[in-house]
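Exercise 3.2. Students should predict the tertiary structure of the chain below and write it as structure tokens, then compare their answer with the key that follows.

Predict this chain's 3D structure.
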Amino acid sequence: MSIRSQADISAFSELVATRSPALHRTAYLIVGDHELADDLLQEALVKAYVAWPRLRDVTKAEGYVRRTMVTTAISWRRRRSFHERPLELVPEVEDADPAERLASHEDVWGQVCGLPPRQRAVLVLRYYEDLSYAATAEVLGCSVGTVASQVSDALSTLRQRVGPKSAALLPDDEAVTR
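Answer key:
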């Protein structure tokens, strides 16, 4: 293990102090659970700290942490145990109109949580974090075309799941300029 310089420790500490709330929000949006978001952010920050001496440009460390969160969340979702969640109460079956239920925030969020991890990540980075397609591609380590394709597929899937009334709440597909 290498000895860290005081400058490295200070730069990492500043990243954690100033960007943790925003990074935690992103982690929550990626995994959909506050406790898992805490774990995801913690794991990403540990990986960033370990990699800190190897980072060529520490001004891009936040992007490194975001990318680490996405790849870590994707690997977590591949585990069989990830999908097991204890419930405090067994949910009651509602006979309400499906269009009314889907119009609520919780139901739409549930549909977003049901997307594959990569599609969910591109939606979070593109629309919540308001990153450009190019910046999203850089964070995910893929091409702009891949991001555009993932966004399009995710929005199409959501439109099918939420129905025509709630689909109006979703963003329109945009023309991607390279």
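Discussion points: The chain has eight helices and no strands. The chain has a mean pLDDT of 81.
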